[in-house]
Structures are given as structure tokens and as C-alpha cells.
Specification:
Elements lengths: L3 H4 L3 E4 L5 H10 L6 E4 L1 H17 L3 E8 L3 H14 L3 E5 L2 H11 L5 E5 L7 H6 L6 H15 L3 E3 L5 H8 L4 E4 L18 H6 L4 E4 L1 H4 L4 H13 L2
Parallel strand pairs: 1-2, 1-8, 2-3, 3-4, 4-5, 5-6, 6-7, 7-8
């Protein structure tokens, strides 16, 4: 069992909000409770990249969830600029060539590159519809092996797969798990979800929680409750 102070940096609050003004308000409300934030497409395309720079310049950890995938040179140039932004974590899809290009571009920096394995909104039928020959679990493990070989900083996967991924990547890589829902909460559009305590027991190093916190009437209390669940693991 851990203390709440110990797990605080392991909780990443997803700022899945439509405007920077609303994101700024959420950060203010969570001051003293949360210390790590995720910025994805929704906020990034509403001025969130500048907001990400502001947060990072003030010492706040920022996980930039861009899920990069492009030709090697384009990925590399993007990563070089993201390093300059002072981000803590960055996602890209776990395609071997892209991962290798990103790792080379980030060399010597503190940026933790995360390989996105299979989106937690996808189940086996979704995988078949997308043309994959693997079920989600098999593809997650295959991509975890490739990310380890590419020397990525971590993996993004469902917490239900975190234990198996941890066995592949060992203790040195981050295992970041979205799709976290406190017991009794609505699953939303997530199909492979786990509670905070179970995620920690399964080997997750960081939990990404958005709607259960930013959608709560009392955001600070919601984050505190999740920290307490994490600390019980």
C-alpha cells in the first residue's frame, strides 16, 4: 500500500475539454491534488499546445497525446519540436519504423515516448473491421515487444493487459493505462476498463483519468477519491 503523496505523480488527469479557458479552470480547481495533465486532440486544436507550453514552463508535467504516425522524417521533426516544448510524455502509434525514428529524434532529452498499442475503445469486432488479423490482446503484446526493441520509454495499453505487458517490458518502462473508471462509474465509450486499484495491482505505472474527474461536480474531491483508490493497491 502506498501513500497518496507517492501516487500523485502517477495520476494523469485528461483535460478532455473544449476550450483552454475551461482547462485552465480545471487546473486551478485541481491545484494541490493533481500534478500531471494530458492534452489530446480536442484541446490541442483549441489553443491547447500553447497552454501545454505554459504548464510545462511552470513545472507542471504534461502528457501530449498526439498518437503520431507518419513517414519517418516527419515523425522525427515533430518529436524534435515537442522536445523543445518541454513535454514529459508523448504518444505515437506503435509502428516499428515510426518508433525508431522518434527514439532517435528524442535522444538525449527527458521526453518519455509512449507506444500506443490498441485503443481502449476497440474490441475484437472493431479489430476485424479495421483489417487486423490479431485479437486486441495478441496485438497489444506484439506491439509491446516491438516497443521494447525500439527502446521506447513506455507503453499505452488497457489496464486489463498491463500485467501481461509488464512481463514483456520489465520494470524499467512506463505502462500508462487509460480507460480507468472508479467502481460504479459510467464506462462511456470505453470497452476495456479497470478500476484504479486494480490497474495499479496489474502493473500500471500511470493512470489516465479524464471524464470521472473533469466531468465531476467537485473535481478535486473526485481526483482525491481516485488517489485514495490507487494508494490502496
Amino acid at each position: 500500500m502506498s501513500s497518496i503523496d507517492t501516487v500523485r505523480d502517477q495520476l494523469i488527469v485528461g483535460l478532455d475539454l473544449p476550450t483552454v479557458k475551461e482547462a485552465e479552470r480545471a487546473v486551478r480547481e485541481l491545484e494541490g491534488t493533481a500534478s500531471f495533465y494530458k492534452i489530446g486532440y480536442q484541446l490541442a486544436f483549441a489553443g491547447g499546445l500553447d497552454f501545454a507550453r505554459e504548464l510545462a514552463s511552470g513545472g507542471t508535467k504534461v502528457f501530449l497525446d498526439m498518437k503520431l504516425l507518419d513517414i519517418d522524417n516527419t515523425v522525427a521533426k515533430g518529436v524534435e519540436n515537442i522536445v523543445k516544448m518541454g513535454m514529459t510524455m508523448l504518444t505515437l502509434h506503435a509502428y516499428p519504423k515510426s518508433m525508431k525514428a522518434a527514439v532517435e529524434a528524442a535522444k538525449g532529452s527527458d521526453l518519455c515516448l509512449l507506444a500506443v498499442t490498441v485503443l481502449t475503445s476497440m474490441d475484437e469486432k472493431d479489430m476485424i473491421d479495421a483489417g487486423y488479423e490479431y485479437d486486441p490482446h495478441t496485438l497489444v503484446l506484439r506491439r509491446a515487444e516491438q516497443a521494447l526493441q525500439a527502446k521506447m520509454g513506455g507503453i499505452v495499453c488497457s489496464a486489463s493487459e498491463a500485467s501481461a505487458v509488464r512481463r514483456i517490458v520489465g520494470p524499467g518502462m512506463a505502462v500508462v493505462t487509460p480507460g480507468i473508471r472508479p467502481a460504479g462509474s459510467d464506462h462511456g465509450d470505453q470497452k476495456r476498463v479497470v478500476t484504479p486499484a486494480d490497474a495499479m495491482r496489474n502493473g500500471s505505472s500511470h493512470l489516465v483519468v479524464a471524464r470521472p474527474i473533469v466531468g465531476a461536480v467537485d473535481r478535486k474531491a473526485a481526483a482525491q477519491a481516485i488517489l485514495e483508490e490507487m494508494a490502496k493497491a
